[in-house]
Amino acid sequence: MTLCNLAVRRQTTAEIARRWRAECEARLAFDVPGDTPGALIFAFGVNDMACDTGALFRASPARSEITARKIIEEAAAWKPVLWIGPAPVAERITAEAAAHGLEPDYHDKRLAMLAPAYGAIAEDLGVPFLDLFAALAGDRRWAQCLGAGDGVYPDGEGYGLIAELIGQWPAWRSWLD
Known about the structure:
By secondary structure, the chain is mainly α. It has 8 helices and 3 strands, in the order H-E-H-E-H-H-E-H-H-H-H.
């Protein structure tokens, strides 16, 4: 299995929608008949719910949902897809994060609205969805990992918690079989 992370820090679903297909096609151009087929895993949404100066959201919840549906629907018509929902964030981000251009206005209340909406879209499209928000919200270890990270991205232990959740996810396990 070869994994290619196409993440770009601070990108919204609208920005991802403009580039995901071309970048995936470039990486999957070498699919060989009889070889393991390409598959896609999406994880986005946190940056849509962040605020920039003077804006309530970088992307409104409604716009985020419409764009996410478009991405996932197109992707699922092309390749097998798994969708991982956004994880909770800290109410305050670190000075290091601010130095990298992150606005200090990420709120779990916004993500608490978005994650179930994404889950409903995934169900409607028949795409497996892992609700990281529900799994990690209120988890003391996760909060500590966010505090040790920048408040949006956790430390290594936090990524370990995410890896455990993915590793236990039946949809992921079925991909490995």
